Amino acid sequence: MPQNIQFTRTLLDHLRSVEKVAVLTGAGISAESGVPTFRGENGLWKKYRPEELANFDAFMSNPSLVWEWYNYRRDLISGIQPNPGHYALAELEPMYRSFTLITQNVDGLHRLAGSKHILELHGNIMINRCISCGTVASDVQGPQDTDLPHCECGELLRPDVVWFGESLPERELRLAFDAAESCDVFFSIGTSGIVQPAASFPLVAKQNGAYVVEINVEETVLSSHMDETVFAPSGEVMPQLVRRLNEVRD
Ligand code: BV8
Ligand code: ZN
Question: Is 229 a pocket residue for ligand 1 (Cβ < 6 Å)?
Fold first, then answer.
């Protein structure tokens, strides 16, 4: 039975009166959909080393291993659905004049849940891109067995995600900073706050006067900087928050 979450009067009053809300999500918001996180107990980085898999040099030195890992994750993701936390964020969006959902996740679950204004900072795992000419192929599966997917130009295809050491997409990064700098309330949901530059957004929001709320099942490096932290699963917290806000509006 989900626990009854307590929200402060300050947060509820803010959310009933402000115009601009921004959200940063990480792997934690997809955990209740069955997607493993990166740094939790059975996190992906526990079994694999990111240096060996989520960077360009690793890919070029062993494309089959990296494709094997991404296919394993694609299989994991293709069978799952958004959870109540994703749906609650989609419900929240039209309640504000300006609502920006910044995600580090590559699983596409926010779009599937109906969110519209999404900034995918780290790309999308279901899309392939040519390492040379940049052609994007969204319906191509990775290699089965040994053959690696190639572009018409003859070069290798890679998953269209941002690897360590690679810069984030210009447009998404700029819009994310704009949102963090100008919002009235900023949520950090289900992220350990370790990966840069994404982890800087809650602090940018705070520095620009936003009321910053963290929703996580455990303390993170961001917690001490937050105005409010709700320690509970986002799939329970977010639907209850939306319900509380709707109560007032009826
Ligand atoms: C860049 C995509 C520069 C691929 C990912 C110092 C040393 C070395 C390197 C650096 C450094 N400082 C900065 C860097 C660079 C590096 C970095 O940040 N390294 C870290 C590890 C220190 N950053 C980069 O390389 C970035 N690029 O900086 O470029 C540059 C500049 C100009 C020109 C050229 C280059 C690129 C970063 C992107 C890397 N790509 N993934 C893929 O997915 O395969 S990172 C990976 O981590 C995922 O994208 C993931 O989204 C991201 C962040 O992880 P989280 O989402 O936070 O997940 P995590 O498991 O950590 O935490 C989950 C949380 O959820 C936990 O807190 C848990 O408690 C909570 N939770 C669990 N269940 C629930 C829950 N919360 C709520 N409810 C629940 N039910
Ligand atoms: Zn090509």
Answer: no
- Integer Cα distance of 33 and 80 in angstroms: 6
The confidence score (pLDDT) of residue 248 equals 61
- The answer to whether the CB of 35 is under 6 A from ligand 1 is no
Residue identifier of the C-alpha nearest atom 79 of ligand 1: 233
Amino acid letter, 157: L
Residue 198's SS3 state is: helix
Q: Whose CA is nearest to atom 34 of ligand 1?
A: 167
91-117: pLDDT as tens digits:
999 999 999 999 999 999 999 999 999
Look up 122 and say whether it is catalytic: yes
pLDDT tens column, 125-164: 999 999 999 999 765 555 554 589 999 999 999 999 999 9
CA 24, CA 210: separation in Å to the nearest integer? 13
Residue 249: the pLDDT is 53
